[in-house]
Amino acid sequence: MESSEPSDVESLPRGGFRCRLCHVTVANKPSLDDHLRGKKHQRLENLRTVRQTQESRSVFVSGFRKGTPASELSDYFQAYGEVANVVMDKDKGVYAIVELQNEEVLEKVLAEPQHSLGGQRLRVKPREKKDFKYNPPRKQGSAKREQLSPEKLAENLCQADDVDAQMSLMVQLFEFSESERRLRDLLVTLFQEVFLEFFPGSAILPFGSSVNGFDVCGCDLDLFLDLEKTQSFQASAKAPNMTQEGASPEVDTRSEDSILSDIDLASATVPEVLELIATVLRKCVPGVHNVQAVLNARRPVVKFCHKESGLRGDISINNRLALCNTRFLQLCTEADERVRPLVYVVRYWAKQQALAGNPFGGGPLLNNYALTLLVLFFLQTRSPPVLPTVSQLKELSNEEEQTTVDGWDCSFPKDSAQLNPSANKENLCSLLAEFFHVFEDYDFAGCVISLREGQQLPLSSFLSSEADNKLKLGPFNLQDPFELSHNVSANVNEKTALRFQRCCRDAAKYCRSLQYQRKSTKGKIWGLVRLFQPGNPEALATDGFIVNLPLTLAAVPPQSCELLNQAGDMRQLWFQKICTGIAFTLRDVLRCSCLETAQGFEEEQAATRSQQQEEQIEAKMKLLSAGSKRPLENDEGEGVLSPSAKKSRIDTFLPTGESMTWDCSTLHRVWLGRRRVRRQLRGTDLDLTEKAGSLELEAKVSELISKQEGETTPTEPLLQFTVCARVTEAASGKQGTCVRLSFTPVPEQAAAFQEFFHFLQGFLPRMVEQYLVTRA
Ligand code: ATP
Ligand code: MG
């Protein structure tokens, strides 16, 4: 009988054990012994031995022509001895694992300096030795868990006995199912296998919510590709006179056909390495598609999607601090069992209120990492504290655990058993109410939240020129626990910060009611359910998604406003022109699809105005424009965008009344990284330098962003929304009339729409004005 490897068993804090081989947790030593003698463990041990033996007599083969059948490879290697099996990479057919009968045959194969098949030179290497990982076969359809609808969630929650039970239930309902966890493990193993072949010595390490204890079914898979060893292997292989000490004997980074012969990892830029990774993913990882290097993010990544499960993920290469903060979050979840339910509930609440989430890795919302830190900070500041501060954790760490990552102190204990249990006895129901209470009046802009110290710090300590932890201050200041110069919520704008406070206030008020605290005996909704109801859509539309365009826009002098207000016809023509400008900006400048809805807008009706009427109105308009203080500087620049788009032709549907609606969608994130692309374009085209801020330049910027985002046009729109423009009277004391634009995203995209809207608020009025000045 096989004996278990000692590394299979891991001791858990409260006397329990976990068998790493079988993913089984048991409560005590006798149960562990039972498990180790049991069928499952024995079967997996046998399987491990078989796999390891297979591995030790297999070679990794690449370089053959695509589509080469397994039988041809088998025939070829038969010349050296018996071939036991050939496993082709199913998806792309670019590599194969050839298992030979025994190690003698393997040695013969490896002794051959050059292999070729069908005129192609083959690359033949021994297989990398990997740890055996048990991944039981996935049951059909079990990887994708049905998304829980808000109705089903409410139904489940209402059945719980109290708020504490509701909060624990949230974790059970949202955390990964066994099959989802397995799918992720499987994918990580697959990536590891492929990357090891192309980047010898590399390691692929998951971080973020897949492993930090805040897993939510369907969340993205964040991966870090550690190339440090590969780089040193490459360096030692390149040094001509150096002995190969420390380098893996199997690593051949110099051979012509090694992917590493194309790149010097020590001097390559991050974009170059990421492009290479993207190529490996595209060509060699089965089941992966939509691979795309995103280079303009704070942390550049390669994005991918797993075809069968729809799982999305990122690979980054310079994100060691994230591995560290992932371990820290995990430690916090292990330190106190109230951490997970509280974070799950706050995250869900914030998502429903469109305050937080990771829509596209940007925008003015708090991201899930920042929101989680806020909850942890809250727990550090309870009296007595639920969690220790990061400084206290450092004190508790032993010598081995003292580490510095990218110059920042990341020392904290590995094991939660080193921490003292908290003396705080508050229940979940009251902790949640207190969370809202603490932040309803919090001065986010006036201080810096520090998890290292477990207290708020004055802004002054970050302003002095000597401060080595200078961080970007803004309306919401939340210092990263390790990278002390990083404000993790630097992206949050004032509006979101204020809304966060307002929503906390509403929630705190609700938490004081009996409806929150007690289960309804009459079958009404109670507890968390009311809290999770999305923010009133009306309220979102009135304070969130409105842009006002004054009718004085472009070339209408203020003194003529009164005239505009009186002259109904002219007012309508002006409205039409603004509508054309809006449609033009959305469609031609931002590349959105943008369809006028039929309701109330008929081309024929617009056309029924007599030629004479049109001319009269045009004449009045000219008169008004002549009085404008704003120069019509680009007037001669007609057709700046395309010769076909000539001046003053209102060739779309026109409003006949004083409102107009469009159904819109966007395929690309044209609002992200515009400044960078603008710089790029200006650098390459002198003509464009002169046209700074012009419709032409902006259209080119959108075009380039769309191109950079993906070679293939996505079929699913990123965002869908309607825009309704309406002539309204401005508030008293302001100029007479304006066009009120209200944007309504499809309900489930309210949060994701925020960042696009934030961009449109500034961009749209500028562009419509440009349009009116230069083209209307
Ligand atoms: P989810 O994907 O479920 O929204 P997440 O925690 O995985 O949650 P991501 O945005 O995917 O969030 O980020 C992955 C990880 O990257 C985080 O868990 C954190 O470790 C790190 N990270 C994200 N944003 C920041 C940031 N602003 N500063 C520092 N580290 C960050
Ligand atoms: Mg993530």
Automatic annotation (TrEMBL):
Transmembrane segments: none annotated. It is an enzyme of class 2 (transferase). Its EC number is 2.7.7.19, 2.7.7.52. Residues 117-150 are annotated as: Disordered. The keyword Phosphoprotein does not apply. It catalyses: RNA(n) + UTP = RNA(n)-3'-uridine ribonucleotide + diphosphate; RNA(n) + ATP = RNA(n)-3'-adenine ribonucleotide + diphosphate. Its cofactor is Mn(2+); Mg(2+). It is found in: Nucleus speckle; Nucleus, Nucleolus. The keyword Magnesium applies. Keywords: ATP-binding, Magnesium, Manganese, Metal-binding, mRNA processing, Nucleotide-binding, Nucleotidyltransferase, Nucleus, RNA-binding, Transferase, Zinc, Zinc-finger. Belongs to the DNA polymerase type-B-like family. PANTHER family: POLY A POLYMERASE CID PAP -RELATED, SPECKLE TARGETED PIP5K1A-REGULATED POLY(A) POLYMERASE. This is Speckle targeted PIP5K1A-regulated poly(A) polymerase. It comes from Pogona vitticeps (central bearded dragon).
